[in-house]
Amino acid sequence: MNKLLTIVIPSYRSSNILAKLLIILPRKYNIIIIENSFDNEFKLKVEKKYSNVKVYLKKNIGFGRAINFAAKKIKTKYFIAINPDTIIYKNTLTNLINAAEKIDIFGAIGPTHINFKNKKNKNFYLERDKLNGPANLFQTKIFKKIKGYDDKIFLYFEDNDYYKKCNILNLKLYLIRNSFYNHSKPQKYNKSLNVKSSSFSNIKEKNSSYLVGGWHGQWSKFYYLKKYNGFINALIRCVPSLTLNLLQLIIYSLIDPTKAKSKYFKIEGFICSLIGLPSFKRSKFDKNRI
Fold first, then answer.
1. In the listed set 158, 183, 208, which residue is the last one of a domain according to the structure?
2. Cα separation of 9 and 217, whole Å?
């Protein structure tokens, strides 16, 4: 088994798309899957088929906390966190490792989106203020030392927060020019039970997850802005979207109750963050799986 790299994949109702991803990932790497929807059937099936894969069943703890949990299990020098709907090409991981070995200390490095493969640039790697969230490679020791992702953020802005922390600590972020990935486009909510990497069994489950996503989008936005810019600045920057959501709530309450509920969840998420409540909101259907 490779002693330099471990692959980490946070999963939430992602069994279908993960089955396809595991086929293309090299079996010489240990793979840790944090299964946030507590799918024991998926765990048994995958661990039986792949000797290099370990699946940990968790309640829905979120993206950042899932990676933090996995990092505690890792013994290799590096690990890469990959979204389930990310496409990794033949030489992606090898080229990332080679690049990491040439850089002394860094906060994270990441592959280049496949759309920019032929873009001319003389530099082997480019320093960036932030990277692409779907695939990031970390130095395990550095990640643990700076305590990884912010555990208070359940969903959204966790990458922004990590990159900002690296900027403050002068830990460089690099885009690697000879390593590539692709990321699936999100599907429209009204046309499919599949949303990004998650698959839902019915429309109610999907809509519940969508509403919770809106809640956390606003909670995390204010929390992140307050953390780095202060309460007043965060409030000023969030007022325009709050005002719009309030106006839309009033209008949709008269013509479209479903959209009105979506706006209400966003407003509630912002208010909960404003008054200092934790990011507690979860889909009501998650409780049935825990």
1. 183
2. 22
Q: What is the DSSP string of 21-68?
A: HHHHS-TTSEEEEEETT--HHHHHHHHHH-TTEEEEE-SS--HHHHHH
Locate 100 and state its tokens.
């990491």
Q: Does residue 57 sit in the same domain as residue 89?
A: yes
Q: Taking the CB of residue 122, how many other CB atoms lie within 10 A of it?
A: 5
Q: Is the pLDDT of residue 276 over 90?
A: yes
CATH number of the domain to which 170 belongs: 3.90.550.10
Q: 158 and 18 in one domain?
A: yes
The structure's pTM equals 0.92
State the chain's maximal CA–CA distance in angstroms: 60
Q: Per-residue confidence at 125, pLDDT binned at 50, 70, 90? A: confident
Token pair, residue 162, equals: 């990590």
Domain that holds residue 244: 200-289
Q: How far apart are CA 245 and CA 238, in angstroms?
A: 11
Total number of domains in the chain: 2
Which residues lie closer than 8 Å to 272 by C-beta, 6 or more apart?
215, 219, 279, 280, 281
Is residue 188 scored above 50 in pLDDT? no
